[in-house]
Design brief:
It is a single chain. The protein is α/β, with parallel strands linked by helices and 271 residues long. It has two domains: 2-210, 2-enoyl-CoA Hydratase, Chain A, domain 1 (Alpha-Beta Complex), CATH 3.90.226.10; 214-262, Lyase 2-enoyl-coa Hydratase, Chain  A, domain 2 (Orthogonal Bundle), CATH 1.10.12. 42% of the residues lie in helices and 15% in strands. The protein contains eleven helices and ten strands. It has helices spanning 35-50, 83-91, 95-99, 121-126, 155-162, 165-174, 180-185, 198-210, 214-226, 233-248, 251-262; strands at residues 2-3, 11-16, 19-24, 56-61, 110-114, 117-119, 131-135, 139-141, 178-179, 191-193. It has a seven-stranded mixed sheet, sandwiched between helices. Strand 1 (2-3) and strand 2 form a beta hairpin. Helix 5 runs antiparallel to helix 6 (165-174) and helix 9 packs antiparallel against helix 10 (233-248). The longest helix has 16 residues, at 35-50. The radius of gyration is 19 Å and the shape is globular. The two termini are 26 Å apart. Keywords: Lipid metabolism, Lyase. It holds the Pfam family ECH_1. This is Crotonase/enoyl-CoA hydratase family protein.
């Protein structure tokens, strides 16, 4: 696996083939957010968007906790940001929201692998990912109200669109924990696996994504991102057709159909 120079102390960014690996790396503090972690994630998502050789990403964490969200021990002002973070933040004021997948999500899929607790911001960033694998010991929760805080990562908007309204309301208003099994029952995650196996399962999903035509995958991901329930269906269909046109005109589409006819695996080039 190749480590990339956009990594920070609290966010390791690596590449293996067509997959970008983004690993939260502050296990001693339950992977609570720091400026360095946010900067690493921001850079990772922008690299995912811009690098044509990257087809998807896997987000995971070191240690036995995925992410505890904001570092409450650091107080309301959080950790002191270094000069590099402040410089980028001056140019990109919503850097933190891009890092947490609230704003400007990349147009390529993100697979999530969760071990242990994913609370507050840990569950908020989950809602910006596409396919979610969790260990049996995973625990979710948007717990901000229990601390007198507001979930600014987008949960009051997104969560009710991803699971039943009344379940979302219970999570948001009670601030209580949800088990992996219950999260699976309500469709918040895709799959539950034995402890320690979430990353391996996420790798398998990423491999299956990478077997497909990258132009098609990107177009489908853009449609999922952009054509929300609030759009009238006829307008969404027209917008979807605009994404489909270049895919059908691509060399990848011709290769896919040739491979089907010749009964062999397709060899996609991204063109």
């Amino acid at each position: 696996m190749k480590a990339l120079d956009i990594s920070t102390d609290n966010c390791i960014v690596e590449q293996e083939g067509h997959v970008l690996f983004v690993t939260l790396n502050r296990p001693e503090a339950k992977n609570a957010f720091t400026p360095a972690m946010l900067l690493g994630m921001y850079r990772a998502w922008r690299r995912l968007d811009e690098d044509e050789e990257l087809y998807c990403a896997i987000l995971s964490a070191n240690g036995d906790t995925f992410c505890a969200g904001m570092d409450l021990k650091a107080g309301p002002d959080g950790q002191r940001a270094n000069d590099e973070f402040l410089q980028v933040m001056a140019e990109v004021p919503n850097l933190h929201w891009q890092a947490l997948l609230r704003d400007d999500r990349p147009c390529k899929p993100i697979v999530l692998a969760v071990e242990g607790f994913a609370l507050a911001g840990g569950t908020e960033i989950l809602q910006g990912t596409d396919i979610r694998i969790a260990a049996e010991n995973a625990v979710f929760g948007v717990t901000e109200v229990a601390r007198g805080l507001y979930p600014m990562g987008g949960s009051t908007v997104r969560l009710r669109r991803q699971i039943p309204y009344c379940i979302a309301a219970e999570m948001l208003l009670c601030g209580e924990h949800m088990s992996a099994r219950r999260a699976l029952d309500y469709g918040l995650i895709n799959r539950v696996v034995p402890p320690g196996e979430a990353l391996a399962a996420a790798r398998d999903v990423a491999r299956r994504i990478c077997d497909n035509g990258p132009l098609a995958v990107r177009a489908v991901t853009r449609s999922l991102r952009e054509h929300q329930e609030c759009m009238p269906e006829d307008a969404a269909m027209l917008a979807s057709d605009e994404l489909a046109g270049p895919v059908f005109a691509s060399e990848d589409a011709r290769e896919g159909m040739r491979a089907f006819k010749e009964k062999r695996p397709a060899h996609f080039s991204g063109r």
